[in-house]
Amino acid sequence: MNQLLTIKNDIIIIDNLAVTSKFNVTGELNVSGESVIHSLNSTTIVTDTLHVKKIITDQASLAPNTEWIANTTDDLNGKGLKWVHNSETTQLIYRSGGRLWNSNSFDIPREASYRIDDIPVLTSTSLGSSIFKSNLKQVGQLSALTVVGDSSISGFAFFNSVSNRLGLGTDEPSSSITIIDNNVEISIGSPVYNLASFGTRSNHDVAIITDDLPRLTVKNSGEVHIGNAISKAGVLRVFGSLYADTIVSDTRLERNTSLDFKATSETTVYGKGLIWTGTGTSKQFIMRDLPDRFWASESIDTSKSYFINNLEVLSETGLGESVINSNLISVGNLTSLSVVGNAAIGSTLTSLEINTTVVKLGDNVSVSNSGISANSSVSLLVNELPILQGTTTQLILGNKESSNIPVTVFGTLSVGVNNPDPTVSLSVNGNVSFNNKKFVNGVSIPTSGLFAKGDICWNDNPINNGYVGWICVQTGTPGEWKPFGLIGV
User: Fold this and answer.
1) CA-to-CA distance for 414 and 176, rounded, in angstroms?
2) What is the pTM of this model?
């Protein structure tokens, strides 16, 4: 052997060791460097690197005597068993969190199972009975399916276990079965006791079809159509009685008897008659009571006269001779007027037409088609108080005695403007005074005139970094002014 050997305190220390035959050591053997030993018998071995082709132990199994001891779980992280073949590595190691990690698959016999707390959780053919939760996204062909609770199938079919309702195309079914297709909500269920319901909850038609053709259609307006308007091949057969409050037909209804409205113990004849619908409001010619009479919702046009008790009472050109009383309040141009008894023209006269161009009301006022004219002034009075007064020099609206009367203007109000802007309510051409505050405009502060504190001059030429206008801070002629409203750049 070509090594340096040292014996210290019954410990043999060898720098390098290469043994081709059996090597016996009693006590502790300390080897520094790389060691290659073909046969070694020692109580304790401490070495930097130990290459072993085969380990033989007197114990029944190596595993129960193999221990990884550390102070923390982080020190144990990555410790375990490793199998290396060429460039492939298989590991069974410890990882933080108290779990073992395997880099490859576990393969156990078909009849064996994976267990948790001695409970089978997975075999080659099934999940354990203790597993009742999963995130499975695909299953095979089921022989049976039982769901306790809500369920959803492919984001299309939804079952609500609380209300026991099924929705197709909706997760909020409004009836026992709700189908939403093409934005139409189809409902099947029993909304009240002893009533089955089928139709649409949305504002859409319902059709019953055979041979892919609509045979009966209930419109969203409530109309029921038999057949369709194109083929006009619909046939309705009633084997029994047909009761209808109203029958509407596009063709003539042949009759060989009079149309008879009969009163029963539950109905009367009032409100019955002829009704025309389809163009605007319905047109009616019906029977009414208190007193019994015929009532028409439209005008009645006849080429003959109207008769009462076989006497003509109204023709195209005049009242019948039997009509001697009336409440007429207007008549046409009378060719003559004969009054037997008193006649009054005054408070009871609602209108009076005088065939003349101008009506004079005293020496001061006259009324004509062009308006009311007065020599000096004219006033419009309400309750003996003037609300509008006008002269050649002044127009006054309202009066001092009733200064609290509000004045309302509907439309655009303008002062000194011939063509006011219709988009604004008030247009003023010139300076204004509002609540004893004067408002003028210019390109600089006023240089003349009397101004009071609080008066404002608006800037006619606003520019960046300039001001919106100037305000008077000291009454005077023209007073003291300060700018306000800095315009940002």
Assistant:
1) 68
2) 0.34
SS (H, E, C) the chain: CCCCEEEECCEEEECCEEEEEEEECCCEEEEEEEEEEEEEECCEEEEEEECCCCCCCCCCCCHHHCCCCCCCHHHHCCCEEEEEECCEEEEEEEECCCEEEECCCCCCCCCCCEEECCEEEECCCCECCCCCCCCCCCCCCCCCCCCCCCEEECCCEEEECCCCEEEECCCCCCCCEEEEECCEEEEEECCCCCCCEEEECCCCCEEEEECCEEEEEECCCCCEEECCCCCCCCCCCCCCCCCCCCCCCCCCCCCCCCCCCCCCCCCCCCCCEEEECCCCCCEEEEEECCCCEEEECCCCCCCCCEEECCEEEECCCCECCCCCCCCCCCCCCCCCCCCCCCCCCCCCCCCCCCCCCEEEECCCEEEECCEEEECCCEEEEECCEEEEEECCCCEEECCHHHCCCCCCCCCCEEECCCCCCCCCCEEECCCEEECCEEEEEECCCCCCCCECCCCEEEECCCCCCCEEEEEEEECECCCEEEEEEECCC
Rg (CA), the chain: 56
Q: What are 270-309's pLDDT values in tens digits? A: 999 888 888 889 899 999 999 999 999 999 999 899 999 9
Higher pLDDT, 358 or 9: 358
> Are 457 and 440 contacting, i.e. CB atoms less than 8 angstroms apart?
yes
The model's pLDDT over 158-173, given as tens digits with 9 standing for 90+, comes to 888 888 888 888 888 8
* CB 483 within 8 Å of CB 469: yes
The larger pLDDT score, comparing residue 252 to residue 407, is at 407
Roughly how many angstroms between the first and final C-alpha of the chain, as a whole number?
A: 97
Q: Which residue, 420, 383, 421, 422, is CA-closest to 401?
A: 383
Residue with token string 């060791």:
17
Are the beta carbons of 30 and 13 closer than 8 angstroms? yes
* DSSP-assigned beta bridge partners for residue 24: 41
Residue type at 215 in one-letter notation: R
Query: Peptide bond before 291: cis, by omega within 30 degrees of 0?
Result: yes
Instruction: Map tokens 């009383």 to a residue.
Output: 325
**pLDDT surpasses 50 at 62:** no
Q: To the nearest whole percent, how much of the chain has pLDDT over 70?
A: 80
Distance CA 390, CA 378 (A): 6
Q: How far does Cα 302 stand from its chain's mean position?
A: 55
pLDDT of residue 451: 94
Residue 358 clears pLDDT 80, i.e. is over it? no
Write the pLDDT tens digit of every residue in 76-108: 888 888 888 888 888 888 888 778 888 888 888
